[in-house]
Design goal:
Elements lengths: L1 H23 L3 E7 L4 H6 L3 H4 L7 H8 L4 H8 L1 H10 L1 E3 L6 E4 L7 H10 L20 H5 L9 E5 L4 H4 L2 H4 L3 E3 L10 H9 L13 H15 L3 E6 L1 H7 L3 H24 L7 E6 L26 E2 L1 E4 L7 E2 L3 E4 L3 H8 L20
Parallel strand pairs: 1-6, 1-7, 2-10, 3-11, 4-5, 4-6
Antiparallel strand pairs: 2-9, 3-8, 7-9
């Protein structure tokens, strides 16, 4: 009898492990946004007009670090992971100098509407016309994934901006969100306890936006511990430094964010759960102005700022066709959510989300 019971228990355990292994074969997606980063910075490198403007305090330092002999060298100096890894093994969209365009469909052209469009696949200008902390009535891709058998309880969001619990609607969706100066909660490891201790000991530059290094480390520790299959990470420093008119800090922050993404990619390649089954989809919530004149100020974005509707997109992963820098194409930000869901092998309900996904995989 005991032998039979052991066999039955072993059979159940094997079946459970087999189901888990089968579920874990479902793809993983890390969706990443860099707040208010212009396509010009990604595709042409440091802006020499702004470098030589009153927005720059230490021109010599920026020149030494980020100015080379060509546009190609400049952009690689500024964002080496994008141009040494993504450009060689993935896809990059949005270089308008090559007639590759990515545009917002919302008319607001600032953060909450932009993130709503990225995460839901639709603009909602009627209901989302401010950055106020109002719970999003729209259902995000995170929430949709969290209702499926394959991804339920395996979705998480991390952001530097404290509005993300409202954008993702953590109360309704059940998706855990750590944003702003929120501490990690639950059964914490030593590093998470340490992050909770020091995140306000570092300089608090903006009360609503923490430094990106903390968002990054909270996300990475959560991934190591819980292995979520769909993770959203929003880095925020770039937009706030730009609003403050600090081109030095904006440029250094963009360079640092590129390094944070590289660090996360390198981690993914060493973790058996994520390795060879994880996609990075990277974009921004809006563009911003090009120069120093009113109506096109680099510090600004929104409906009255030329260029604020212009965005970009990068994709990297195991089955991504290595086409590098795209040309002669038109994409829209509202295509990102259905693209993520398609990558997760989720059926898209056209009543909840347009099914205009981007085809980036190998034939």
């Amino acid at each position: 009898m005991k032998t039979l019971l052991k066999i039955l228990l072993a059979t159940v355990l094997f079946a459970t492990l087999s189901i888990k292994a089968q579920q874990d074969k479902n793809p993983n997606v890390i969706l990443i946004t860099l707040d208010g980063v212009r396509w010009q910075d990604v595709f042409t490198g440091i802006d020499t007009k702004l470098l030589n403007s009153s927005y720059t305090q230490d021109k010599d330092l920026l020149t030494e670090k980020f100015v080379g002999t060509s546009i190609e060298e400049n952009r690689t100096l500024l964002m080496p992971f994008f141009w040494n890894t993504i450009a060689n093994h993935g896809q990059l969209y949005g270089n308008r100098n090559k007639n590759s365009t990515v545009n917002l469909t919302n008319k607001m052209m600032f953060s909450y509407p932009g993130y709503n469009e990225i995460l839901t696949g639709s603009a909602d200008d009627e209901n989302i016309d401010s950055n106020d902390k109002i719970y999003n009535k729209n259902v995000t891709l995170l929430e949709l994934a969290n209702t499926t058998e394959a991804y339920k309880g395996k979705v998480a969001g991390f952001g530097s901006w404290d509005v993300f619990p409202f954008i993702i609607n953590d109360k309704r969706s059940g998706v855990p969100v750590n944003a702003g100066y929120m501490d990690a909660t639950g059964d914490l490891n030593k590093r998470e306890k340490f992050l909770n201790e020091i995140q306000r000991q570092a300089p608090v530059i903006w009360e609503s936006v923490r430094l990106d290094v903390f968002t990054h480390q909270y996300a990475k520790e959560y991934m190591k511990k819980n292995h979520p299959k769909l993770v959203y990470i929003s880095y925020g420093e770039t937009d706030d430094f730009a609003h403050d008119g600090h081109f030095d800090f904006y440029t250094k922050s963009l360079h640092n964010t590129d390094a944070l993404i590289a660090d996360l990619w390198n981690y993914v390649q060493t973790d058996s759960f994520y390795k060879d089954n994880t996609y990075f989809i990277i974009t921004t919530d809006h563009g911003r102005g090009e120069g120093i004149e009113e109506g096109s100020k680099w510090t600004s974005h929104g409906i009255d700022v030329a260029g604020a509707e212009q965005t970009w997109l990068a994709i990297l992963g195991p089955d991504v066709t290595s086409t590098g820098e795209a040309s002669n194409n038109q994409l829209y930000t509202n295509q990102i959510a259905p693209t993520v869901l398609k990558t997760l092998n989720m059926k898209i309900d056209s009543n909840k989300m347009p099914a205009n996904s981007i085809d980036f995989k190998r034939p």
